[in-house]
Amino acid sequence: MSRTALITGASRGIGLGIATRLAAQGYGLTITARDRDRLESVAADLRTAGAKDVVVVVGDLADEESAGRVVEAHTDAYGSLNALVLNAGVGTAGPIGEFPMRRFDKSLGVNLRAPFSLLQQSLPLLRTGAAENPGRGSKVVALASITGVYAEAGLAVYGATKAALISLTETLNVEESGNGVSATALAPAYVDTDMSAWIHDTIPPEAMIEVNDIVELVDALLRLSSRAVVPKIVVGRAGTDGYRA
């Protein structure tokens, strides 16, 4: 039986890199993002790269109904799930004293509520995938941030949502790793993606972590046996003290 993966934020950056790697390994994929034209183009490329099938679900995870539509589409196409990659997120900066609650609510919805909902609704599929392949189990990979581990001025809300995401993955391991479903939160400093372009005047792209570095970690995690649980991996940038984005 072929392996399957559901990847959010798959149209560019880290999500696209992971989807491309898994396509080359013959995974059946469900991908989601907001831009229909770009997502359809990416799906065509993934099929060419070797994906057994690619299910496209266009949606904004700020919409509370989106998670259900994504999981339903994957269920209809495949019936089980081997890898859930929670990559979609929003980044916003600002000091605590001046941070608008509207932006707070958007950050919380996309960075925490949506991943929780996707995970909750995907658990039956992940348990099925683990039962079908007990030696490897099923994996959840959540893209968090180093700011969820080490506080950084101006990134309180972003860091808080990512800290909560890390806690969520660790709790999932307590509850589900005995059933073959385990999770890892990746907590990198700035990665060279569109999302990090806002800080190029301070940290140039060549000083950031490469997308492929994160892809390599995800690939390795998905190859682990069901006996190994890696709660989180912090990835710092070269030339720093390793405690800041």
How does this structure look, described?
There is one protein chain. With 245 residues, the chain is an alpha/beta fold. The chain is 42% helix and 16% strand. The protein has 6 helices and 7 strands, in the order E-H-E-H-E-H-E-H-E-H-E-H-E. The chain has helices spanning 13-24, 36-49, 66-77, 101-132, 156-176, 211-223; strands spanning 4-8, 28-33, 53-58, 83-86, 138-143, 181-188, 232-235. The chain has a 7-stranded parallel beta sheet with strand order 3-2-1-4-5-6-7, sandwiched between helices. Strand 5, helix 5 and strand 6 (181-188) form a beta-alpha-beta unit. Helix 3 (66-77) runs parallel beside helix 4 (101-132) and helix 4 (101-132) packs parallel to helix 5. The model has no long low-confidence stretch (mean pLDDT 96).
